[in-house]
Amino acid sequence: MSDLTKSEHVTPPGASDPLSVGERELDRFPNPGLPEHKHRLSDESEAGSKRVERQIVILFVLSLLASIGGVVGYFAFPVGVTLGSVQASTLSIGLGLGVGMLGIGIAAVHWAKALMSDVEQVDERHAQRSDDATRAAAVQALKDGADDSRIARRPVLKGALVSAVAVAPLAFVVPLVGNLGGDWNVSKFRYTMWGPGVRLARDPDGGLIRPEQVTIGSVWHVIPDGLLGSEHMLEEKAKAVVLMVRMNPTELTEAPERADWSWDGIVAYSKVCTHVGCPVALYEQQTHHLLCPCHQSTFDVSDGAKVVFGPAKRALPQLPITVDDEGYLVARSDFTEMVGPSTWERERYTDLPVSDEEKAH
Amino acid sequence: MVKALASARRHRFAPVVLMLFALLAVGGIYAVAAPQAAVADSASQDDVTEGEKLFQANCASCHGPSAEGRTDVAPSLIGVGAASVHFQVSTGRMPMAANAPQAPEKGVQFSTEQTAQLAAYVASLAPGPAIPDGEQVDPALGDAANGMLVFRTNCAMCHNAVGAGGALSEGKYAPSLFNSTPTEIYEAMLTGPQSMPVFNDENITPEAKRDVIAYLMEQRADDSSPGGANLGAIGPVSEGMWVWIIGMGALIGASVWIGAKSS
């Protein structure tokens, strides 16, 4: 490579100095070459080399002891029911493994650096391009092979080969992709457990809620009644969680078409952020702002939970609520749009009338 | 007369008489002006009267002479109850030092007795949440496991999973609960100070509130962090700092050592 580089240098005509003006600017410093070889302490005296050897042996012995200690720790500290026994077990096994491996590594590097040969060698790189004759021979070999197989004259064979190679990967690609979701029924994200007459219940214990219990300034984390103990409880909870607050009706701004979605200043909104679906639950009582802990999207609960800050693009879906004959808070219907982050199917499932048949689907 | 007094000054009993007069004077002043023994449990009419004086001197400039509040300055205190006053004053949050997004916890301005008098006065204005008694906030009587469930649902999003605190918007924050007393924690849930919402007894029952206190007290136990140093329990911030500065620093150091020539 160095020869090649030198041959590319152009000496301007008439310049007697091999270093031209242009080169002189680039090569202001002479190539210092390799530094003078200095012997290590372990090379210069037998005692030094013995000392290094001792150090390496100590490191290996340390590793050995740590590894044995880890095994001893496994038997000495059985993982019991207390947190202390878990701590002792993991700590002793971890220290044994860690110091055991680290000791071997440090010893090996120290050995290589301080005891093994320190002769400096220079290997020049060779050019990556093969010479023309080798290249021509390689191309000829490929051509000969193609001619020998007569693939150009046997189109059926060619087609069969391409088809077989193209289809073979499907045997693992199709199961791989098919197992990704397991369930491709996106419309189920449209529906939650909420529906006409479903009572609002307290998270986590499921107690039913009366409107007079929800005092001004308080915030309630709400789940649908019947969720606890139901099949797929966590999946349903993830879609149906609601945050309910009561504020002074004079502080509440409501869209005319949603005037009957609240009850005497009590409003309920989905707790699933419309950005990427984190639970939005940091409610500031004085500003009525609801903050998402993941990306700081902020929603104004006093004004339709519209976005006032952050990356979310849509207001939180509101759960229409009312009070049933027995005086408990109930949902008037399911959410009228998909909860959670936007998907490309979202538009298809927004603002459609929700019938029981659809919900059953 | 003056002459007689002047000569009596040198009488050998004069110091004794003077001493008697001085003792009498101190005793008399003490009897009139001494603070009454603190009565924390039951607020007397005296407490209310003293509390009103303290209120007029220290609180009325913002909260109004009748605690009715002033628009855009300070909220009305009518009906906030003794619990709210005790929480705000005994943690030093009130009186507020400066207009800020949030009243921080700071040096306490009033004695325990004065705090009780202020609380008695505000409680006398209108019914409100009372200061909880010892049994209501005793962590030994609570169920920490249920407390964790309630805390996780209602509190952890702002106060962090173990109560280390966290940031809110525009300079506000949920404070750490590691140094709060059980009474303060109970009062905060009951009254919803500042940005915090109210968790009334219908939402989180008194028993569940005590469970929450039991859970939080358990986080302070010496063996509450079996994984080793908890780095303030504030999650990815301090843990990331540790990984990037200590962990990466050690890796860089090791790389330099491997590449360096042995001496």
UniProtKB/TrEMBL annotation, chain A:
Keywords: 2Fe-2S, Cell membrane, Disulfide bond, Electron transport, Iron, Iron-sulfur, Membrane, Metal-binding, Oxidoreductase, Respiratory chain, Transmembrane, Transmembrane helix, Transport
GO cellular component, one term: plasma membrane
Pfam families: QcrA_N, Rieske
Transmembrane segments: 56-77, 89-112, 159-178
Cofactor: [2Fe-2S] cluster
Places the protein is found: Cell membrane
Region (Disordered): 1-46
Annotated membrane topology: Multi-pass membrane protein
PANTHER family: CYTOCHROME B-C1 COMPLEX SUBUNIT RIESKE, MITOCHONDRIAL
Protein family according to the UniProt entry: Belongs to the Rieske iron-sulfur protein family.
Name of the protein in its database record: Cytochrome bc1 complex Rieske iron-sulfur subunit
The organism of origin for this protein: Serinibacter arcticus
Lineage: Bacteria, Bacillati, Actinomycetota, Actinomycetes, Micrococcales
TrEMBL record, chain B:
Catalytic activity field: a quinol + 2 Fe(III)-[cytochrome c](out) = a quinone + 2 Fe(II)-[cytochrome c](out) + 2 H(+)(out)
PTM comment text: Binds 2 heme c groups covalently per subunit.
Residue ranges annotated for the Cytochrome c domain, each copy included: 46-126, 142-220
Claim: Cell membrane is one of the keywords in the record: yes
InterPro entries tied to this protein: bc1_cytC-su (IPR009152), Cyt_c-like_dom (IPR009056), Cyt_c-like_dom_sf (IPR036909), Cytochrome_c_Oxidase_Subunit (IPR050597)
Residues noted as binding heme c 1 in the record, renumbered to the chain: C59, C62, H63
Cellular component annotations (GO), alphabetically ordered: plasma membrane
Binding site for heme c 2: C155, C158, H159
One Pfam assignment: Cytochrome_CBB3
Sequence intervals crossing the membrane: 241-260
Sorted UniProt keywords: Cell membrane, Electron transport, Heme, Iron, Membrane, Metal-binding, Repeat, Respiratory chain, Translocase, Transmembrane, Transmembrane helix, Transport
UniProt-listed Enzyme Commission number(s): 7.1.1.8
GO MF annotations, alphabetized: heme binding; iron ion binding; quinol-cytochrome-c reductase activity
Subcellular location: Cell membrane
Membrane-topology descriptor: Multi-pass membrane protein
Assembly and binders: The cytochrome bc1 complex is composed of a cytochrome b (QcrB), the Rieske iron-sulfur protein (QcrA) and a diheme cytochrome c (QcrC) subunit.
Name of the featured protein: Cytochrome bc1 complex cytochrome c subunit
Naturally occurring in which organism (per UniProt): Serinibacter arcticus
